[in-house]
Design a protein that fits this description.
The chain has 127 residues and is of the alpha+beta class. 30% of the residues lie in helices and 30% in strands. It has helices at 7-21, 27-39, 49-58, and strands at residues 23-24, 62-70, 85-91, 97-104, 110-111, 116-125. The protein has a three-stranded antiparallel β-sheet. A three-stranded antiparallel β-sheet has the order 3-4-5, with no helix packed on it. Helix 1 (7-21) crosses helix 2. It starts with 6 loop residues before the first helix and ends with a strand.
Length: 127
């Protein structure tokens, strides 16, 4: 049996964990620490990495950085907030528009090339 915690409890656990550690360089480690905090409230709570990351994005005191790696697939939605990506185009020497990369309309994440994916997430508490 499992329970899904409300967003409010996840936000409180995120802030508490990041106040203690200031910077966490792994999404899996953050999930483990937040889950420990949540299981202090109810031992049946479960939460996914992606949900923790999206809730962390909504908190102003938390900054999310991302190290990138090459990928064969092209990004469809933002890796941090799940928002829509728009193609950034530049003009070449012949005056033609050429796609350069992608940019998120919501959080401003910039992918310099189309074939980039997340390698590592870094969560920083800034206060």
């Amino acid at each position: 049996m499992y329970k899904i915690p409300p967003d409010k409890e996840i936000k409180e656990a995120l802030i508490k964990v990041l106040k203690k550690y200031r910077e966490i360089g792994s999404q899996k480690l953050l999930k483990k620490l937040v889950l420990e905090e949540l299981r202090g409230i109810d031992r049946y709570y479960v939460v996914s990495d992606e949900r923790i990351r999206k809730i962390a994005f909504q908190i102003n005191e938390i900054k999310i950085d991302m190290l990138k790696r090459k990928s064969r697939r092209e990004a469809i939605k933002c890796y941090i907030c799940g928002g829509e990506l728009e193609t950034v185009k530049v003009k070449n020497l012949f005056g033609e528009e050429v796609p350069l990369g992608k940019k998120c309309k919501t959080c401003g994440l910039v992918l310099e090339r189309a074939g980039l994916a997340p390698k590592k997430y870094i969560f920083v508490y800034r206060k």
